[in-house]
Amino acid sequence: MDIERTDSEILFRLPANVDTLGLQRMIDYLKYKEATAECNPEQVEIDKLAKESKANWWKENKHRFVK
User: Fold this and answer.
1) Chain-centre distance of CA 11, in angstroms?
2) Distance, CA of 46 to CA of 67 (rounded, Å)
3) What single string gives the DSSP state of each residue in 7-65?
4) pLDDT of residue 40
5) pLDDT for position 2
6) What is the pTM of this model?
7) What does each C-alpha distance from 12 to 2, 40, 55, 56 come to in angstroms?
């Protein structure tokens, strides 16, 4: 594996026999890090988003658990 840093990016060179599933997971994580690099939410915002997410999930999946 080779890693090269330029003025504007970091380049990774991997052999072709690298496990693609593991590589995809790493790429997904790096995309997440890139997308959230400038994001500094307050705990209140995080809690609100978590509550909304749980409520939406329950609304969509309640039928699977309650008959």
Assistant:
1) 20
2) 32
3) SS-EEEE--TTS-HHHHHHHHHHHHHHHHTTT----HHHHHHHHHHHHHHHHHHHHHHH
4) 87
5) 93
6) 0.48
7) 6, 28, 40, 38
